[in-house]
Amino acid sequence: MRNLDNIYIDGEFVTPKGTETGDLHNPSTEEKIGTVRLAGVEDARDAVAAAKRAFPAFSRTSKAERIDMLNRLNAAAAGRVTDLTQAMALEYGAPQNFTRFAIPHAASSFLTMASVLEDYEFERYRGRARVVMQPSGVAAAITPWNSNIGFITSKLATAIAAGSTIVIKPSEMSATQTQILTECLHEAGLPKGVFNIVNGYGNVVGAELSRHPDIAKVTFTGSTAVGREILRNAADTFKRVTLELGGKGPNIILDDADLDLVIPAALRMGFINSGQACIAGTRVLVPNHRLDEVLARLKQEIETFKVGAPNDPDAMIGPMVSRKHYDRVQSYIELGTKEGARLLTGGPGRPTGLDRGWFTKPTIFFGGDNQMRIAREEIFGPVLSVIAYRDEEEAVSIANDTPYGLQAYLHGTDAARMQALADRLDSGRVVINGAPHEPLAPFGGFKQSGIGREYGVCGLEAFLEPKAVIT
Ligand code: NAD
Fold first, then answer.
1. Residue 244 known to be catalytic
2. Nearest CA to ligand 1 atom 16
3. Catalytic one of 91, 208, 278, 454
4. How far is CA 238 from CA 28, 167, 177, 222, 273, in A?
5. What per-residue confidence (pLDDT) applies to 378?
6. What is the DSSP annotation of 176-245?
7. Ligand 1 pocket, 226 CB below 6 A?
8. Is residue 386 a contact partner of residue 343, using CB atoms and an 8 Å limit?
9. ∠ CA 310-312-315 to the nearest 5 degrees?
10. Cα 172 from Cα 454, distance rounded (Å)
11. pLDDT for the residue 1
């Protein structure tokens, strides 16, 4: 049992003034593993005040100084990859196939941002004007539980590169991971107040940060519903807002696809991070004339997707993060059948052999359409809907017929055709044939998947205001 009772303000670990505590669980066993003492509104205000005091000096640091800080942050995080991985496995249940990528990637976000900063010109000339890109002010970051470490590092890296100080409110369900990460970031020895990390409930600390007049910019990753609330709260003071929200990605198998390659890739994209991923390709679009063949191959391939705890190196799908989330995913599985979709595999309850832990059977529905709630709403678990299409036109139309637009997948053999199709998808990213993540490319969504972009130059500029000095 670990009782976490500190937050990080002004370069120091301090006891929160808030007195509420929350329980932390191991989702693989359902056991309570600790408690976290949560910050209150006053703590949030203290953190903002510290970031505000640090801002004038920090915003005037040179590129070279900030690159040095980013390198130090990277070294500090990279030095504790094992501890961070263990914490993510314990508290979140992430399988090794995810942590193997996610934790090194989280540490490397500092290096990626350092390289972006290296090449970025903060001054340029437009006509007679000298245009200066100036940090917009103190930032707030609010992050979800499904990749807590990576969201904190990428948002912090971008703020540092821009010259902004920041207050970070991680998910209250990720406090063990946050504690270890904060310890490493502290080791990097940045000036006090540059970053502050405050555990707390969303409707308390998150809401205060979204409204606080001294916060100039909010960067949020989480659900569309909370994103809407943050946007409303931020409106009064016209904060700059970046919202990375939900998704319901189309996973399009084209008629020329080589199924030996495509079926494993499509399932990996569908079940990424145990399905608890905004970028999961959860609508598998299949040409009518290949439907039977694809269903047979999916059913066969799914047998290789072992469900289990993170200490099992063969487990590809871990538990749902909490009892509440497990119940939510289960309710969607029941809904699918009620709506008239047919089960290809999976269904309600836990997989055979797992009698505790919030494990869900990887589930694939077919025979439904794109109007069903299971095809329109984000389930955030290992649940896919296979939807048949007539021709390319219909595939594009189904793909775009969604309130979301975060990440789409195309699988086929004709590269030129897929580039042309990619241009027709309303999606912040289109991934062709399972291509790996590109940290320099913008990331974010169309429609209700969000506002703005993170990563690379687009991400950096979302923390900057252009100022024209005209002579
Ligand atoms: P959530 O929206 O419930 O919570 C996210 C964060 O917001 C948490 O830190 C929470 O405490 C805080 N919060 C809650 N209410 C708030 C309020 N009123 N004001 C301010 N902050 C508040 O999301 P979650 O359940 O933690 O994560 C899952 C969701 O995140 C999914 O919908 C998923 O699609 C989304 N997500 C999006 C991306 C992306 O990059 N687009 C990435 C990962 C997850």
1. yes
2. 202
3. 278
4. 42, 18, 32, 20, 35
5. 98
6. HHHHHHHHHHHHT-PPTTSEEE----IIIIIHHHHH-TT--EEEEES-HHHHHHHHHHHHTTT-EEEEE-
7. yes
8. no
9. 80
10. 23
11. 87
HSE, CB side, 13 Å, CA atoms: give it for residue 96: 10
Annotated domain spans of the chain: 2-245+447-470, 250-432
Mean pLDDT by 10 residues, the chain (471 residues): 96 98 98 98 98 98 98 97 98 97 96 98 98 98 98 98 98 98 98 98 98 98 98 98 98 98 97 98 98 98 95 97 98 98 98 97 98 98 98 98 98 98 98 97 98 98 98 96
Q: Tokens for 370?
A: 């794109």
Q: Are 17 and 40 in contact (CB under 8 A)?
A: yes
Give the type of residue at 225. A
Q: Where are the beta strands (DSSP E) in 233-389?
A: 240-244, 250-253, 283-287, 342-345, 363-366, 383-389
Residue type at position 320: M
Nearest atom (ligand 1) to Cα of 443: 40
**What is the whole-number distance in angstroms between the Cα of residue 144 and the centre of ligand 1?**
5
Annotation says 461 is catalytic: no
**Cα–Cα distance measured from residue 202 to residue 145, given in angstroms and rounded to the nearest whole number:** 12
Q: How far apart are CA 399 and CA 249, in angstroms?
A: 8
Q: Is the pTM of this model over 0.90?
A: yes
* Residue 445 Cα: closest atom of ligand 1: 41
Top mutation candidate among 109, 167, 221, 454 for ligand 1, by most atoms within 8 Å of CB: 221
Q: CA-CA distance, 58 to 66, in Å (whole number)? A: 9
Q: Work out the number of other CB atoms within 10 angstroms of the CB of residue 122.
A: 15
Residue whose C-alpha is closest to residue 249's, from 438, 375, 419, 414: 375
**Residue of 168, 219, 220, 226 to mutate, ligand 1, most atoms within 8 A of C-beta:** 226
Q: Rounded distance, CA 284 to CA 252, Å?
A: 6
Which CATH architecture is the domain 2-245+447-470 placed in? 3-Layer(aba) Sandwich (3.40)
DSSP-based three-state secondary structure for 122: coil
State the DSSP string of 370-404. TTSHHHHS---SSEEEEEEESSHHHHHHHHH-SS-
Distances (CA, A) of 432 to 53, 186, 412: 46, 39, 8
Ligand 1: does its nearest atom lie under 6 Å from the Cβ of 145? yes
Catalytic-labelled residue, pool 172, 244, 378, 454: 244
Question: Helix, strand or coil for residue 92?
Answer: helix
Residues 6 or more apart whose Cβ sits within 8 Å of residue 145: 92, 171, 173, 174, 321
Fold category of 250-432 in CATH? Aldehyde Dehydrogenase; Chain A, domain 2 (3.40.309)
Segments of 245-358 assigned E as strands: 250-253, 283-287, 342-345
